[in-house]
């Protein structure tokens, strides 16, 4: 197991360096001059431009800039935003809990609904329930996030008035962040109604962000389940006289879960991308909006630091998924 | 932060009490309607909130409640102005001196007194050298004398028209505190993100991605102002979601067309919500085709005329702006009462004429039906500028000009058009700010440094026009000055250094409970001291 873990970790290092090169160079390929943008409409003199470029280190050869950056990253220094002058790491960890909270809720929503739906569809293959669920899943998978979000806002918030439209909690409540997770902080605050407000703010974004993973997981579970159900050992189990619940829930499900766990892991990456759109629609103050704003300001440090940290999160999630396989299927460990 | 929590509750409790007290029937309408919280939509978070440095509407929208100018625009005030930090202004005969009498008994939000030294510091150290719009108006400002604490005497090295100064007061004269800025790098001062002013509201906090919060300034100089306890700018980057937030009563007001034009018809029918087109009269945006005169074809007046004839302005107004705009006749918008003249060359929609002009200019259609190709860069700042890009491409194709659309984000667009000049035609939304000398003459004047956005970066040079602009800038007699700017409009329309297509103001959508909305020509960027929320 330790060798397996070390092997996986070793692969992460070149991946991480690759991501850092891409993050570093792509943003510099975009046209636009961060120093000129800092000065706004009143255009700075060439001397002042050179002075600020030198302060920010943009006058050095690009390779030196990159190596310097990488050396910083190794020491945990992801640079300082050229707009806000604050360390990128600080800003990231202020905003990231909001994104994590939303993504976790969305993935739980997708798993809790998706796996049972896929199982039922597989067991009742060809039935109306199967067709209805898979049809709905196809629609959910094909739905553009921004459109689905606006539709839900108009219906659920605008016409029915059930849920709020934007933000993480009503502006009525204020408490300093402790964990950064609004659900937990609102409980800790002890303010009456705060937790309920936080939950109601989470409902729509969770549904919107969770819809595509839900559809993917349901379809994946169904096909994995169908495959497993046609295996010999399932027939043997049935022949032994085991109940359907035991056959499906214990024997088949565990084996069917391997591709599903992979899918869930991959969906985390998809989710972080989808979070950018969802966060914009629901004014959710997470890293998505922060990254988008930074691109338009050409805030190099934030973009490359943010990308690198998001990549690190995705890599760690995938590592966790790999380890999880080992638990589900001991053969993989060897 | 614990102290904050308590005070916030107290404010809420206090405001509820005050609101309840106004509901008593025995209290007449003269009773001040203090209290209340206004939640409005903000679609962006400016990186610098100092309106003395960045005089733009995105900054003013938040900062104008905190930092005040010398005077504000007014529908019925004398000369279209209402005094703020200055109570009167007077120019000398020779145009070299303007004397401002300043309001007494005004304090900064940090408790220090406001004096003429603050005005002198703002003018000489901020407006003139740093402000985006200060380039022309304060170009010749040499000194500001402060004979006493409430008098500021502006000394100019060349005659400067009082008319221009007056027209510039609302947008260009936000006064910042000398004691906060002196002796430090002004551009890097933390007060640029947490402004300290004299206005009816104090800057309380900014939570990035969430909101800005302003709180009532109890020591404001205006009698029984402000009415509101608090203004919250809720950051709603998605415009369609802003409409939903209004309907769900999460916000009470969305200015600057934060609700998309396409949603207005639907939302205007929602009970309790009204759509308001007033309050932007002094903030007219212009839809302009910028032309790179370095291109041989475009240096030819006939080609520019042909392009003007190829554009159906009525179609643009009806289809792109859904009627919330006007076709432009020239470089000064029609709603300007001082300078506008309709007596200029006009270019009606006429494809045949456009084709004939292009033939005459020596660019006949080739076998493929095309005459020449152009690179077209629409500004990304508004949906309408991008949509007009799509329209213009088709309109040009109809006369045989093959336009290639290049869509950039704002950083790339700014660099391509205004610094690198890597465009043939571009689409821009400049603002007319009440006087052609503030931000309009620079659209056609030569000699502007590279990189200045919304200025002549198309290499256009017309000595007669430059001379006219220079003369108008020094003409003191208002009537003579107006005549010169009418001449300016005629010359621009005749020579087409750029093509004005349409002009528009924005739309405010508000709940009926919000009162005193749009009651001045720059309402969205004014101080909202008299605005209140009825409960």
From TrEMBL, chain A:
CDD domains: TM_PBP2
Pfam families cross-referenced by the UniProt entry: BPD_transp_1, BPD_transp_1_N
Keyword Glycoprotein (UniProt): no
Stored InterPro entries: BPD_transp_1_N (IPR045621), MetI-like (IPR000515), MetI-like_sf (IPR035906)
UniProt keywords, alphabetically: Cell membrane, Membrane, Transmembrane, Transmembrane helix, Transport
SUPFAM superfamilies tied to this protein: MetI-like
Cellular localisation: Cell membrane
Main subcellular location: membrane
Membrane spanning stretches: 9-30, 100-123, 135-162, 198-218, 256-282, 302-328
Domain annotation ABC transmembrane type-1: ranges: 96-325
Keyword set includes Nucleotide-binding: no
Membrane topology, record value: Multi-pass membrane protein
Family stated for the protein in its record: Belongs to the binding-protein-dependent transport system permease family.
Name of the protein in its database record: Dipeptide transport system permease protein
TrEMBL record, chain B:
SUPFAM superfamilies named among the record's database cross-references: Periplasmic binding protein-like II
Keyword vocabulary terms for this entry: Signal
Location in or out of the cell: Periplasm
Range of residues in the leader sequence: 1-25
PROSITE patterns referenced in this protein's UniProt entry, alphabetically: TAT
Pfam families per the UniProt record, alphabetical: SBP_bac_5 (PF00496)
Family: Belongs to the bacterial solute-binding protein 5 family.
Protein name, per record: Peptide/nickel transport system substrate-binding protein
Protein species of origin: Aminobacter niigataensis
